[in-house]
Amino acid sequence: MFSHQLVKEANPILEAIFDHPFVKGIGDGHVDDAALKFYVQQDFQYLSEFIKIYASIIPILKDRENMKFFAENIDFILNSEIHPHHVFCDIANVTYESLQHATPSPKAYLYQSHMYRAVRTGSLANIICALLPCPWTYNEIAKQLTATGKNTADNPFKSWIDFYLTDDEDADGGLTQKLFKMLNELSKDMSEEEINEAKGFFLKSTELEWEFWEQAFYQQDWRFTEIIHGGDNHE
């Protein structure tokens, strides 16, 4: 199945994400405040674009159940996915509102541009493949941290881990499994060229997930930010 092929080929990148010092820090219960703040700043901007890209799927759909599924997930991102941000903010002792006005960093800008490129192809499979690594890798991180005994009551990141574990709770397997199933159905009518194009979007997005952790851990912003933004780091 197409989904198995995607997971198999992306697995080395997923393993690198598990080994990233930011992710390991979540498991160990300590990440520097600066990294947590940078992450929230960039993820707030990223998710704002993620919502718009999710919405771009709805006009392509013909089935109302699928429309409902994507609409519900837009609502989830808007109203529920603020919880893990609040976890990071509480640990870093900073208000969430103060971190909502950053300019996307170079890697976040690249990730957003990559997703919009998928949208411009007009292919539902390409768009899903560009979006899917985000929920997929987070769910896998939560499962891996739990399986390795890191999701303990005394870990300050426990509620963050628990939040991303819930993707597996639905009878149908949760968001990621539903999207993988959708891709399997779509792939039945796709040419080899279309399969490879969609796979490329998935694998690039998976690497960009690794890059997102990397940029936050080392606070990798624009080198010439004062020139680019005229001294104003706001949108």
UniProtKB/TrEMBL annotation:
The record's section on InterPro entries has: Haem_Oase-like_multi-hlx, Thiaminase-2/PQQC, Thiaminase_II, Thiamine_Salvage_TenA
First-tier enzyme category under EC: hydrolase
Q: Which pathway or pathways does this protein act in?
A: Cofactor biosynthesis; thiamine diphosphate biosynthesis
> Which SUPFAM superfamilies does the protein's record reference?
Heme oxygenase-like (SSF48613)
Q: Which UniProt keywords apply?
A: Hydrolase, Thiamine biosynthesis
Presence of the UniProt keyword Hydrolase in the record: yes
What residue ranges are annotated as transmembrane? Answer: none
Q: Does the record carry Hydrolase as a key word?
A: yes
Question: Which purpose does this protein serve, as stated in its record?
Answer: Catalyzes an amino-pyrimidine hydrolysis reaction at the C5' of the pyrimidine moiety of thiamine compounds, a reaction that is part of a thiamine salvage pathway.
Q: Mind telling me what this protein is named?
A: Aminopyrimidine aminohydrolase
Q: Which organism is it from?
A: Apilactobacillus nanyangensis
Q: What is the lineage of its organism?
A: Bacteria, Bacillati, Bacillota, Bacilli, Lactobacillales
